[in-house]
Amino acid sequence: VTAWVGVLLRLVVGSVWVVAGALKLPEPAQSVAAVRAFQLLPSGIVPTVGQLLPVIEVVVGLMLVLGLLTRAAAAASVLLLVAFIVGIASVWARGINIDCGCFGGGGANPDAASEYPWEIARDALLLAASTYLVWRPSTRLSLDSLLFRRTPLPEGS
Amino acid sequence: MSKKNRADDRTTRAAAAIEEQRRQERQRRNRMVGGVVAAILVVVLLGWLLTRSLDTSADVDAPAVGSEHGVTIGPDDAPNTVIIYEDFLCPFCAELEEQTRDDLDRLAEAGKVQVEYRPFELLGDLGDYSARSAGAFSIVLDLAGLEAAKSMHDLLFEHQPEESGPYLSDDELVDLAVESGATESDVRGPIESQDGAGWVAAATSSAGDAGVSSTPTIVLNGEVIQDGRTVEDLADNLIDELD
């Protein structure tokens, strides 16, 4: 059974990333504005981060779904989620009310304070799943097992 | 040479062959991982080039200061021009207002800058207030002149409701217009029947044509300025550029 736990986590976390990234991909201006609304990063790098984020999310998501370089993809997922949790906690603590723009959108949102705890809880669950995959990256149905399988060597000849 | 020595020799050679095979296997694996990593980096780079080209946030081509869609302060021969696109319902706009108003008033008075505030309807999805407030502003501009319009603009930001409401009623908008210097009997009818709607629609389509997609959008001497981590930083940087 444990062999399939990893597959399930890969598919769940991976598809969340693919959806989150794909929704933002067609509207980078909105993604940049969403990053800016956190008022956390120096303005010089905000456009780059806003433009890169959707691309990286889709790529990391696809890598997880396909099981390609699973450990690296899961590690990237961990880093992104930690950054998002820090970002949301930071705007929450500073009393800034914004839509996190996690799945597109962004900008001011008066009801944000009541949504922050759920957003953090969701990201924490995804973080736990990603951490598991860093720890146990070898799963069934993965490109890794197909591409990087060690050719059996003649033993004790 | 003894029999035993020959046997040892064979074992050594066999071990070396296996070791060589393992080495080649590791090399093949490393090359493949390297290839996959390179391919992924190329995909990310191409994706970034795509999103970069789609990102229009800094491409604003705003009509010159002194348009019919805003209220202008400061002399025509000021060395700098600032255009601020804003929505009376947008919280960041109100924050920017609070941080910059006194300085911009002072600098305009001193002839160092000409500022045009251009309200339009960005947040129409949230309700009718965005259009109603901008409409009331346009009515004051039309019937009571520039000075009253500037003060209506300031008052609308000072009395900004929450984005989710409850919004200011027509009576409250009339009160603000009167406080700005308009005559109640002039503005009450137009505000109640939302006569400003046409002006707001025109201002909004003009902002859209200029490429404005968020508020506040600040155009300093023709270029969008976004320098600053927080609204406060942005306000400070703007004032520093002008002072």
Summarize this structure briefly.
The complex is a heterodimer of chains A (157) and B (243). Chain A is 69% helix and 3% strand.
Low-pLDDT stretches of chain B: none
Calculate Rg of chain B over CA atoms.
32 Å
The helicity of chain A comes to 55-70%
| Distance linking N and C termini of chain B | 97 Å
Question: What proportion of the residues of chain B form beta strands (DSSP E)?
Answer: 5-15%
- Please state the overall shape of chain B, judged from the principal axes of the Cα atoms: elongated
Reading the helices and strands of chain A in chain order gives: HHHHEEHH
SS content category of chain A: mainly alpha
Largest interface: A-B, 44 and 39 residues
Secondary-structure element series of chain B: HEEHEHHHHHEEH
Describe the protein in words.
The complex is a heterodimer of chains A (157) and B (243). With 157 residues, chain A is an all-alpha fold. Chain A is built from six helices and two strands; from the N terminus they run H-H-H-H-E-E-H-H. A two-stranded antiparallel sheet of chain A has the order 1-2. In chain A, helix 1 (2-24) packs across helix 5 (112-135) and helix 2 (28-37) crosses helix 3 (46-66). The longest helix of chain A is centred in the middle third of the chain and has 25 residues, at 70-94. By secondary structure, chain B is of the alpha+beta class. In chain B, 60% of the residues lie in helices and 9% in strands. Chain B contains eight helices and five strands; from the N terminus they run H-E-E-H-E-H-H-H-H-H-E-E-H. In chain B, strands 1-3-2-4-5 form a five-stranded mixed beta sheet, with helices on both faces. The longest helix of chain B has 52 residues, at 3-54. The chains are: A mainly alpha (157), B alpha+beta (243). Chain A binds chain B through residues 25-33, 36-37, 39-44, 46-47, 50-52, 54-56, 58-59, 63, 68-69, 72, 97, 107-111, 147-148, 150-151, 153-154, 157, and chain B through 14, 18, 21-22, 25, 29, 32-33, 36-37, 40, 43-44, 47-48, 50-52, 54-58, 90-92, 162-164, 213-214, 226-231, 233-234.
